Amino acid sequence: MTRKRAKPRQNKDLPPEARGGRVKTEEFRQYGLFMALPTEERKEIFGFTTDTQFAKEYDLENSTLSRWKWEPELWEIRDEYLVVFKKHTAEVIAALAKRAKRSGEAFHALSFLKVVEGFTEKTGLDITSKGKRVAGFRVEVVHAAKSPTSTPAPAK
Questions:
Q1: Beta strand segments in 8-132, E
Q2: How far apart are CA 141 and CA 156, in angstroms?
């Protein structure tokens, strides 16, 4: 009776440092920059715009780029490079304000308030407040009439 050999243990799930470190650190850093750039800037700086082209240029496998996208360090590098775009903030805010005033659309107005005033939308519902007065308003939960999970609201 012959014994089966055990397969060597795969270390793909371990972080790069535990696997002996990242082999292509400069390529990893360049990919972080690549990910931070919009398509037009990628074309101008790198001469190409897709992950497949990046992999070919830097002699990498597409699967390597896919794996790198799961590494928090890549997104930290990308965030470092995003600082470059802060120079456009004033123009973007001015354009957003102009569009919000001109169109009057809620999306543009909310976007402006989020950027300039730090406005955040309230989400969720405190169901423990049902039937009570909250900030001067009476909380009432009414189900949608045609929802398959709702029960009709009582007639008033």
A1: none
A2: 14
CA 114 to chain CA mean position, Å: 17
pLDDT at residue 73 tops 60: yes
Give residue-wise pLDDT tens across range 119-155: 777 665 555 555 555 555 655 555 555 544 444 555 6
Closest CA to 30 of 55, 63, 52, 13: 55
46 close to 54: Cβ distance less than 8 angstroms: yes
Sequence-distant (6+) residues with CB within 8 A of 29 are 77
Which pTM does this prediction carry? 0.48
Q: How far apart are CA 133 and CA 142, in angstroms?
A: 16
Between CA 15 and CA 59 the distance in angstroms is 22
78 CA to centre of own chain: 12
φ, ψ dihedrals at 30, nearest 5°? -65, -35
Q: What is the phi/psi pair of residue 25, to 5°? A: -70, -40
* Domain-wise residue ranges, the chain: 25-86
Determine whether 129 is exposed, middle or buried from the number of CB atoms within 10 Å of its CB (0-12, 13-18, 19+): middle
